[in-house]
Amino acid sequence: MTILVDDPAFGVEIEEKKVACEESELVLDAGFAVPDSNAFGHTFRDYDAESERRDLVEGFYRVNHINQTYDFVKRMREEYGKLNRVEMSIWECCELLNEFVDESDPDLDEPQTEHLLQTAEAIRKDYPNEDWLHLTGLIHDLGKVLLHPAFGELPQWAVVGDTYPVGCAFDGSIVHHKYFKENPDYNNPAYNTKYGVYSEGCGLDNVLMSFGHDDYMYLVAKDNKTTLPSAGLFIMRYHSFYALHRAGAYRHLMNEEDVENLKWLKTFNKYDLYSKSKVRIDVEEVKPYYLSLIEKYFPAKLRW
Ligand SMILES: O[C@H]1[C@H](O)[C@@H](O)[C@H](O)[C@@H](O)[C@H]1O
Ligand SMILES: [Fe+2]
Ligand SMILES: [Fe+2]
């Protein structure tokens, strides 16, 4: 790994507060065995459950919702879109994620590398011929590398968690929605209507999403000229957009290509979410397979 630019630390104050929240419903395809409960004995994505992770997760969303404004996202996209910080391979990045645990996740407290392999291997089992989808599983969360000191050690609220459009009204289905009341955009008439700065069918490509690992990894993959199909890039960019792929909100912003790609995203989501468990994958055993996929779809070194 080559570190090109060192960024100053990104200081943020995090206060904790406990309040109850709303939950979204499950949409599942037939034929997929959904586990009854997560590793903590609760339903998946239950943000209210009395769990050891609940307060941490809620504190995370409070700070996330207050700070993700239209201006913040624009600034971060410009800055991190330069890809002038690090040069490394996809696999090197997978290894870097071993030190991070995602504070927004009620279902997992394992290092992120484990989650990448669990997702990819679960997809590979059910879709043996879609090698692009296996690789998408492996890399979909690599944007969490923004937590690393080489990327300015961004705070968790700017990297992980569910994502949502900025520049228009925050939909009520978004986890812990109540904290948006403290976001400056919430009372800004330019940004707080159904369409805000957007128009009917404008296409998600033209919508600014809250900044985080999804959008960043999409930029990395695209600018480094991946040969993954458009559905793979779509999955990377919107896999945390639960308000869309689970609750069906914001469909008025989609175009025809988005509608097509959403089908793959919904399939992908089952593996991303329900593969989260304490069962470990033998990295050395599966590594040669994933290295061959990386070689097929990416250059040896990428700009990050
Ligand atoms: O907490 C999780 C986690 O940050 C995932 O990486 C993200 O994709 C999910 O949307 C979110 O619920
Ligand atoms: Fe993610
Ligand atoms: Fe994930």
UniProtKB/TrEMBL annotation:
<keyword id="KW-0963">Cytoplasm</keyword>
<feature type="binding site">
    <location>
        <position position="144"/>
    </location>
    <ligand>
        <name>substrate</name>
    </ligand>
</feature>
<protein>
    <recommendedName>
        <fullName>Inositol oxygenase</fullName>
        <ecNumber>1.13.99.1</ecNumber>
    </recommendedName>
</protein>
<dbReference type="GO" id="GO:0019853">
    <property type="term" value="P:L-ascorbic acid biosynthetic process"/>
</dbReference>
<keyword id="KW-0408">Iron</keyword>
<feature type="binding site">
    <location>
        <position position="272"/>
    </location>
    <ligand>
        <name>Fe cation</name>
    </ligand>
</feature>
<dbReference type="GO" id="GO:0005506">
    <property type="term" value="F:iron ion binding"/>
</dbReference>
<feature type="binding site">
    <location>
        <position position="140"/>
    </location>
    <ligand>
        <name>Fe cation</name>
    </ligand>
</feature>
<feature type="binding site">
    <location>
        <position position="115"/>
    </location>
    <ligand>
        <name>Fe cation</name>
    </ligand>
</feature>
<keyword id="KW-0060">Ascorbate biosynthesis</keyword>
<feature type="binding site">
    <location>
        <begin position="102"/>
        <end position="104"/>
    </location>
    <ligand>
        <name>substrate</name>
    </ligand>
</feature>
<feature type="binding site">
    <location>
        <begin position="161"/>
        <end position="162"/>
    </location>
    <ligand>
        <name>substrate</name>
    </ligand>
</feature>
<feature type="binding site">
    <location>
        <position position="213"/>
    </location>
    <ligand>
        <name>Fe cation</name>
    </ligand>
</feature>
<dbReference type="InterPro" id="IPR007828">
    <property type="entry name" value="Inositol_oxygenase"/>
</dbReference>
<feature type="binding site">
    <location>
        <position position="141"/>
    </location>
    <ligand>
        <name>Fe cation</name>
    </ligand>
</feature>
<keyword id="KW-0560">Oxidoreductase</keyword>
<feature type="binding site">
    <location>
        <begin position="239"/>
        <end position="240"/>
    </location>
    <ligand>
        <name>substrate</name>
    </ligand>
</feature>
<dbReference type="GO" id="GO:0019310">
    <property type="term" value="P:inositol catabolic process"/>
</dbReference>
<comment type="pathway">
    <text>Polyol metabolism; myo-inositol degradation into D-glucuronate; D-glucuronate from myo-inositol: step 1/1.</text>
</comment>
<dbReference type="GO" id="GO:0005737">
    <property type="term" value="C:cytoplasm"/>
</dbReference>
<feature type="binding site">
    <location>
        <position position="239"/>
    </location>
    <ligand>
        <name>Fe cation</name>
    </ligand>
</feature>
<dbReference type="GO" id="GO:0050113">
    <property type="term" value="F:inositol oxygenase activity"/>
</dbReference>
<dbReference type="Pfam" id="PF05153">
    <property type="entry name" value="MIOX"/>
</dbReference>
<feature type="binding site">
    <location>
        <position position="45"/>
    </location>
    <ligand>
        <name>substrate</name>
    </ligand>
</feature>
<comment type="similarity">
    <text>Belongs to the myo-inositol oxygenase family.</text>
</comment>
<keyword id="KW-0479">Metal-binding</keyword>
